[in-house]
């Protein structure tokens, strides 16, 4: 008798479990009728369509406030940093072994391709000592001033294909990072020093390491497509006494309002690199 009651109970439990998914008597699925499910799905469809519409409207309004050529917020880095080419802060080579310095020579040659006369003839012959200010146009296409690699003299790679590395008097190119709208006051120039007791002679190209104002302001990558940064070539006139020693060289932007003494940022307006020439 007990066995019969257990079987009945198990049958009722199985029937109740199946009814929780689909109840054939009421037509409910998971406890809801078809009309109830339809109303819930309709509610969520309308709700998520409303959220998508609000998101699209917000993005559309945001995009209306943006300029394709100029970033909206650009006050985080008001002063430019310095960079060097070849792109290494630790330059070590044997002047007697071309394989040891070929990577630096190739890097410099590749970098200076945009400064070739054939490329720079497309740009404008600007007035020295004056900012090259340009009015806004519908297309926002800006002209760029010429900077020919020939102005780097013996560090141009045109007369000395090894940029001085084969004679142990290497050339290093210094350039400022691009900052939209920057117009440095004064007469900016690059000055480099070597941290040692006896000073090392250096040559600067263009003369005195000056960065002409005509290369400012910069209008942005999209608007200023042909723009190239002005360069200063520093030729280190090392002697035999300087060989086989690691020398620390610091270059700074001087003569203007560009900051070069921020202890929190070692590359703001300055850069330090090491160089070692082995005989």
Features:
279 residues; 2 domains; Immunoglobulin-like; 4 helices; alpha+beta; elongated; four-stranded mixed beta sheet; 20% strand
CATH topology of the largest domain: Immunoglobulin-like
What's the CATH class label of the largest domain? Mainly Beta
Q: Strand content of the residues, in percent?
A: 15-25%
The count of DSSP E runs of length 2 or more, i.e. the number of strands, is 10
Number of helices: 4
- How large is the radius of gyration? 34 Å
Biggest β-sheet: strands ordered side by side in the sheet? 3-5-8-7
The CATH H-level superfamily of the largest domain is: Na, k-atpase alpha subunit
Query: Could you describe the largest sheet, including whether it forms a barrel?
Result: 4 strands, antiparallel
Task: Quickly count the domains.
Answer: 2
Q: What is the oligomeric state here?
A: single chain
- SSE order in H/E notation? HEEHEEHHEEEEEE
Q: What's the shape? A: elongated
Structural class: alpha+beta
Transmembrane segments: 37-66
GO molecular function: ATPase activator activity
Protein name: Sodium/potassium-transporting ATPase subunit beta
Keywords: Cell membrane, Disulfide bond, Glycoprotein, Ion transport, Membrane, Potassium, Potassium transport, Signal-anchor, Sodium, Sodium transport, Sodium/potassium transport, Transmembrane, Transmembrane helix, Transport
Task: Give a verbal description of the structure.
The chain is of the alpha+beta class and 279 residues long. The chain folds into two domains: 44 residues; 196 residues, Immunoglobulin-like. It is 25% helix and 20% strand. The protein has four helices and ten strands; from the N terminus they run αββαββααββββββ. A hairpin with a 4-residue loop joins strand 1 and strand 2. The longest helix has 31 residues. The termini are far apart. 25% of the residues are buried. The model has no long low-confidence stretch (mean pLDDT 87).
């Amino acid at each position: 008798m007990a066995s019969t009651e257990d079987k009945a109970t198990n049958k009722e439990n199985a029937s109740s479990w199946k009814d929780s998914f689909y109840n054939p008597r009421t037509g409910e699925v998971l406890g809801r009728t078809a009309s109830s499910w339809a109303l819930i799905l309709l509610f969520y469809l309308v709700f998520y369509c409303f959220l998508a519409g609000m998101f699209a409207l917000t993005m559309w309004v945001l995009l209306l406030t943006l300029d394709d050529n100029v970033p909206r917020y650009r006050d985080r880095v008001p002063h430019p940093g310095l960079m060097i080419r070849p792109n290494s802060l630790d330059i070590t080579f044997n002047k007697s072994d071309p394989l040891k310095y070929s990577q630096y020579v190739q890097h410099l040659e590749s970098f200076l391709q945009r400064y070739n006369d054939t490329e720079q003839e497309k740009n404008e012959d600007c007035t020295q000592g004056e900012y090259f200010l340009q009015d806004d146009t519908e297309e926002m296409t800006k002209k760029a001033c010429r900077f020919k690699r020939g102005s780097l003299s013996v560090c141009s790679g045109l007369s000395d294909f090894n940029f001085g590395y084969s004679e142990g008097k290497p050339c290093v190119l210094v350039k400022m990072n691009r900052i939209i709208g920057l117009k440095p006051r004064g007469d900016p120039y690059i000055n480099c020093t070597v941290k040692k007791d006896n000073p090392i002679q250096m040559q600067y190209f263009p003369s005195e390491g000056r960065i002409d104002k005509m290369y400012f302001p910069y209008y942005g990558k999209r608007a200023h497509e042909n723009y190239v940064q002005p360069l200063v070539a520093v030729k280190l006139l090392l002697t035999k006494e300087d060989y086989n020693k690691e020398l620390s060289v610091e270059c700074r932007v001087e003569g203007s309002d560009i900051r070069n003494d921020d202890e929190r940022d070692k590359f703001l307006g300055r850069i330090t690199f090491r160089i070692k020439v082995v005989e």
